[in-house]
Amino acid sequence: MLEIKNLHAGIEDKKILKGFNLTVKAGEIHAIMGPNGSGKSTLSRVLAGHPAYQVTAGEVSYQGKDLLEMSAETRAQEGVFMAFQYPTEIPGVSNAYFLRAAVNAVRARRGEPEMDAVEFLDVLKRKMKLVEMDPAFASRPVNAGFSGGEKKRNEILQMAVLEPKLAILDETDSGLDIDALRVVAHGVNQLRSPERAMIVVTHYQRLLDYIVPDYVHVLLDGKIVKSGGKELALELEAKGYDWIRPVGSKV
Amino acid sequence: MSDAKELINREYKYGFVTDVESDAIPRGLNEETIRLISARKKEPAFMLEWRLSAYRTWLRMKEPAWQNVQYPPINYQDMIYYSAPKNKKDAPKSLEEVDKEILDTYAKLGIPLDEQKRLAGVAVDAVFDSVSVGTTFKDTLKKAGVIFCSFSEAVQEHPDLIQKYLGSVVPVSDNFFAALNAAVFSDGSFCYIPKGVRCPMELSTYFRINAADTGQFERTLLVADEDSTVSYLEGCTAPIRDKNQLHAAVVELVALKGAKIKYSTVQNWYAGDKQGKGGIYNFVTKRGKCAGAKSKISWTQVETGSAITWKYPSVILQGDDTIGEFYSVALTHNYQQADTGTKMIHIGKNTRSTIISKGISAGRGKNTYRGLVKVLKNAEKAQNYTQCDSLLIGDQCAANTFPTLEVENNTARVEHEASTSKISEDQLFYCASRGISGENAVSMIVNGFCKEVFNHLPMEFAVEASKLLSVSLEGSVG
Amino acid sequence: MTDTKTPENETLENYRRSFEAFEKTELCGEGGWLCPERRSAFQRFEQNGFPGSKDEEWRYTRLESVKKMVPKSAATASVDLKTMEPYVLDPAWPRAVFVDGVYQPALSAGLEDQKGLRVMSLAEALRRHEPQLASGLREARLKPRALTDLNTAFFTDGIEIQLAAGTHLEKPLQVLSLFLFAEGERAIHPRNLILAGPGSRAAIIQSFAGIGSNSYFSNGLTEVRLSEKARLDHYVLQQGGSQGFQTARGEIWLEKESRYETFMVSADTPFFRYEIDAVLAGRQAGLQLHGFYLTAGNEHVDQNVLIEHRVPECTSGQVMKGILDGHSRLVVRGKVHVYPDAQKTDAQQTMKNLLLSRDATADAQPQLEIYADDVKCTHGTAIGQLEDDAIFYLKSRGIEADEARRILTRGFAMEVLEKIPLEPVRRAAEAALGAHFREV
Known about the structure:
The structure holds three protein chains of three kinds.
Chain A: E1 2-11, E2 14-24, E3 29-33, H1 40-48, E4 53-62, E5 65-66, H2 72-77, E6 80-83, E7 90-94, H3 95-110, H4 117-130, E8 141-142, H5 148-162, E9 166-170, H6 178-190, E10 197-202, H7 206-210, E11 215-220, E12 223-228, H8 231-239
Parallel strand pairs in A: 3-10, 3-11, 6-9, 9-10
Antiparallel strand pairs in A: 1-2, 1-4, 4-5, 7-8, 11-12
Helix pairs in contact in A: 5-6
Chain B: H1 2-5, E1 22-24, H2 31-40, H3 45-59, E2 83-85, H4 100-108, E3 122-128, E4 131-135, H5 138-144, E5 147-150, H6 151-157, H7 159-165, H8 176-184, E6 187-193, E7 202-208, E8 218-224, E9 229-237, E10 244-247, E11 250-255, E12 260-267, E13 279-290, E14 296-303, E15 308-311, E16 314-317, E17 323-332, E18 337-346, E19 352-362, E20 366-375, E21 383-393, E22 398-407, E23 413-422, H9 425-433, H10 438-454, H11 459-472
Parallel strand pairs in B: 3-7, 6-8, 7-9, 8-11, 9-12, 10-13, 11-13, 12-14, 13-15, 13-16, 14-17, 15-18, 16-18, 17-19, 18-20, 19-21, 20-22, 21-23
Antiparallel strand pairs in B: 1-2, 3-4, 5-6
Helix pairs in contact in B: 2-3, 3-8, 6-7, 10-11
Chain C: H1 7-23, H2 35-48, H3 64-68, H4 81-84, E1 95-99, E2 102-103, E3 117-121, H5 122-127, H6 131-139, H7 146-154, E4 159-163, E5 173-179, E6 186-188, E7 191-196, E8 201-210, E9 216-226, E10 231-238, E11 245-254, E12 259-267, E13 271-280, E14 286-295, E15 300-309, E16 315-324, E17 329-338, E18 345-355, E19 361-370, E20 375-384, H8 388-395, H9 401-417, H10 423-439
Parallel strand pairs in C: 1-5, 4-7, 5-8, 6-9, 7-9, 8-10, 9-11, 10-12, 11-13, 12-14, 13-15, 14-16, 15-17, 16-18, 17-19, 18-20
Antiparallel strand pairs in C: 1-2, 3-4
């Protein structure tokens, strides 16, 4: 589904990803772990098409198409979804309105008819139940005045509504207490399916107790330095990131 | 808070008078006065012409009344426009020749001009009444190619530079006081940093008004050539006198391509007594021009003195990718009034400006922030962030915020925030209950309030500024 | 300067001729009972002239086009029900309708039904020598100001609304002003008086719509007085079609524990200067102002607000948002003045302007003038474009760039509009917004 080859990318003049490789197949969950500054968030944003990041080398193929050629909105319409680490607040625009606009943009791409407000509200209510969200949030402005946990839950709600093929969760666990984490993870697990792939980007192993990955990769200084199964995450938790650093590398 | 009430009032410690013979011209202002000043200074013809044109412009101008300050009318004919310490010889050729009384004065102020005793790293130009009395570290600076001297000297030695840049940022017709200054200014500092030079030490001018009934009109011109860097400090004091004295200075900064100028002021002119008698009228025009691309001008000011302060250190962001900054602390106590702020004029693309203003009003002090952020049509992606905070101490003072935002380019982003707060009884009680007395508590809270600005001052100045605030605030809590 | 015929002098001369003619009519005040007040107001106007560039409060706004207009009074005009209908917010609400500044009993409805509510046209009040009208003028409690003087000299009609103590108006009252001016360029000076008795509650909507094609100058003045514990929701709504120059001013007086909430919605107005001058004169009075402006083309809109906190424990809030398109200019000026004794004042001010086009200009002057120390005063102002991050967020959810901008712009407006509690008013406001954004 997704094949990243020798990806080099950065922001302004700073090089962050330096030869990143990853292959993800449908139905798989890949966890990308790494310390601060290793390039985790850059990877998420580059895949989602953030305009501030430049790709200087490498290629990314998604379902056989060149992902890097696509605009951010085309990527989303083609089924790529990123759950933001810091979701943006949009005062004055209700959650329901926002999501329906997104759903209809995706449907338009697929040549499907628009969903009307009543129909959509039904879908939304069902999905809200899935992520244990109060229906009142449908009419509240997007993320404005939400707590950290509510924002993250709102991201998962969007994912549930948009039903992406490839979901990238960018440090979805950051800033969550244990209860909120459980709810968010539950929502994500509900969305696991053989057709859907997920990339879970995280600093801590904690999230992986709830969202169990098929593969774990360690990102250091812009590339993957070690890959393994879910046990690798536990090992990292126990030993920290230092043991994995190549000898003589800068800390 | 009875503790707070018992705070002692310390006196203005720079209020002494130095007994030197001075050579002053007669009171009053006319074309003759100007010719006299120019002749005394042996100026070339272009200077006299420039002064006279300024004087004629001034005659047609009206004293501004829009600023939020009140003062009795100034009689411009009852003032002495030139006063210089009389020296045995015509002028001091070197520091050794400077009158001992004056050297002692500066020592008392904590600014010893004696190079041996001077802390390394700061070159000082001292201006006593209307003339520069000595510049330190001239040789070190010369090696680096830096010109740092009195304005009079620059007119003699570097007339080409003076002619090129004088009035290029603040034209004679700019405002009433700038025109007056251009006509009668007596001395000041001149500084030129050549291409690519990082000035090896902090430069500093120390201004002192000594003689009675004189107006001080000095002029500073600082030119930073391409890719040069300089940090400039300015300090001011005056003796205690019961009559108001006028100080109408002009400062012009020119930053060429890639140059960086940091200009810091600690202004501690005599503020008048507790009843508002006496003190300096500090009406100053300060402006910098980021003429070349990627240049930067940063103003930092701590204004604690003067009966009235009226000044707006501004930046014209003409080159692309230029940066303008204004960090200000203004404190008014007793009957002091301050109307200060800045103008950031965005002309070039990707220009950025930051304004942080902290106003503290105590007693019957009146503090006004007045600012303009203007983004012109072609200033693509210009950005400004402004923050104005006021702190009120006591219920007789006033704090005003009058910003103006004018945006003609839709890719610009201009933001302004303002807040007003007071030192509450609760805060003082909380401090007291932790063993911090009224005076220290106020000083602590005020210093905390100003921290963001102090962080931009050179270390030595930051310490001085912080002390000055504490002294100026004594007796402010009741 | 004395005898030369400058345009300025010509304007004043036109006004003088117009006033002298007006003085002879019955409209001036039957039996001449108001003429001395009008005459002294006119003399002041003559002395000061129109506000100009030297006046800080008029820094960005010029009345040159207004000066060129000959100050002819409006003839009596009328329109049929069908023309009026689209502007009636809710037919069930009581309404008072004016055409070209003249009261229209035939178009008005439901004004007699409510106990404790007394509505009268000012023309009628003039005929009856209503005492509060005369005393209002004699007390000269209004701020001295050229446009106020002009209004006092020339007003002939308007509305007077009185709410008796304790009256709770069940339905909102709409005061609809239609501008037709079929006979050509005219100047009108509507004068309104809203007196809310102690403990009364009401919602009043002043709405304006242009239904003709001639230019005009409408110089309105509305005085609002809230007695103790009165509560008034006051809407000022531009319903579109305006072709002329409109200046309007509200002078609000708030007694103890009264509350005034105002929503100001303006779109599709070529020239509009709106002033609010509010005095919080009694303890624990509260004022909340919501302003929304949409400007396009060559429109020029200028809002000037002054809120005076004269006594302790009052609160005021201002939220003003503008969306600017085309070559338009929007000026937003707001001053909070806290008097020396007004401790425990809580005043907040927010101004946000969104620039959609390269050629629009936004000016903002948020001002605080504070003479008391125990106060909470803040203001925040932002001028710029939509946030890049917000656009990216929408795009990352598959929404096309143009649509993302449209949604965010609408959201920017809705932050103010969704606070309007009256459904029909909110719908009318959204309609004005929608009409513009279909074109974008």
